[in-house]
Amino acid sequence: MLSLSGMNQPRALPDLTGQNLGTVTLLHKIGEGSMGVVYRGFQNTLSRPVAVKVVFRQKLNKLFTSDRFRQEAEVVANLLHQNIITIFEYGEQAEFMYFVMQLVDGISLSQWLKQKKKHPLPKKRLPSLDDQIRVSEQVLEVLGFAHHEGVVHRDIKPENLLWIEKSRKVMVADFGLAAVYHTIYDEEKAFILGSPLYVSPEQARGDIVDGRADLFSFGCVLLELTLGFLPVKVERPERIFQTRAKESPDMFTGMAHDHSPAVPRIWSDFIARSLQPNRDKRFASADHMLAELRAIAPALRTQEAAGTPDAAAPFPLPYRGSGQGPDGQRPDGQRPDGQRPAEGG
Fold it and tell me: How would you classify residue 206: left for phi > 0, otherwise alpha for psi between -120 and 50, otherwise beta?
């Protein structure tokens, strides 16, 4: 039986604001996910601001145990890359475990998209193609590095990718929940890690995964950055898992160019290749995907800089997915115009 990690939330997580964890004082919450909470903290021994991710034992299962969590923390602490958030310290208490991490002065790609959608000019309401290429290059470099080290992220999504506007840099978060290639459990097939909208088909089936699962998830991120939404049918999270698990060809209601002819076809085809249900038909590796990106990037940037009609046109077009809900509501609760439905609506 499949265990859909993070879907059941029986009770609210406790607020640890003001408490001391090891050398760090927790100041306030800065984010919350399915398994825990991220706090801004202050490391008293080194007088520096840090981020602290607290994962509660009540959210763990028989596979994702505290021993496994600790082992993976050790692996990730040694993934030293300029675009990976560094882990400084690890600790445990009776009800939870925690990481002390590098604090990044950036926003998630989800927040970035929300900010973009508020711009008064329609053509500025999505990241530029140049910025999307910058994001892609950096994330693929990180994934290539991690995969060579034997680590698959398994939860690539906009919330785990942080954009630093000033330096145009991307930082990848949550490698602490990654899967280690050489750590194999007999019941691994019963465990799923990943978010429904971004999970790969092989993850949804509970199969053993490799780096191509991360490429699928990142393809979903790119599709969302390009259109401003993910063109999937409106379904409950568990139904999305079931759809992905079947390797159904109708996982999406179309690719980027289908929903908006303003999107260059070569960019749409590039994203589509990473989203092949059969992983053997995707890019062979993150390095391969990065090489293909760099091959098409000059033409894409030239088209955007020239202001050709396709590149300059405001997009996306109105969403026409067959599974559209009231007011065009999508699975994440947003309408295609980027607005959330009114309370009770």
Answer: left
Number of domains comprising the chain:
2
Mean pLDDT (the chain, rounded): 80
Using DSSP, state whether 20 is helix, strand or coil.
Answer: strand
Cα separation, 300 vs 223, whole angstroms? 16
For 65, 139, 146, 283, the CA distances from 69, given in Å and listed in that order, are 6, 23, 17, 30
CATH number of the CATH domain containing 156: 1.10.510.10
User: Mean of the pLDDT values across residues 159-182?
Assistant: 81
The closest alpha carbon to 174, from 23, 46, 15, 37, belongs to 37
Burial class (CB in 10 A: 0-12, 13-18, 19+), 210: middle
Q: Mean pLDDT lowest for which of 5-9, 111-115, 136-140, 244-248? A: 5-9
**Residue 241 and residue 106: Cα distance in Å, rounded?**
30
H helices of the chain, in order, are 66-77, 109-116, 129-148, 201-205, 211-227, 237-245, 256-259, 265-274, 286-306, 309-312
User: 265-292, pLDDT tens digit by residue?
Assistant: 999 999 999 999 999 999 999 999 999 9
Prior bond to 316 cis, omega within 30? Answer: yes
Regarding whether 38 and 60 lie in a shared domain, the answer is: yes
Average pLDDT over residues 87-95: 89
Is pLDDT at 133 greater than 70 in this prediction? yes
Tokens at 45, concatenated: 């021994």
- Which sign, positive or negative, has the C-alpha torsion 142, 150, 181, 216? positive
CATH number at residue 89: 3.30.200.20
* CA-based R_g, the chain, Å: 20
Q: Which residues are catalytic?
A: 155
In a domain? residue 1: no
By residue range, what is the domain housing residue 154?
A: 107-317
Q: What value, to the nearest 5°, has the Cα angle with vertex 297 and ends 244 and 273?
A: 20
Answer yes or no: is pLDDT of 315 > 70.
no
CA distance 254 to 232: 8
Q: Cα separation of 237 and 220, whole Å? A: 15
Q: Which residues of 54-67 are buried (b: 16+ CB within 10 A; e: fewer)?
A: bbbeebbeebbeee
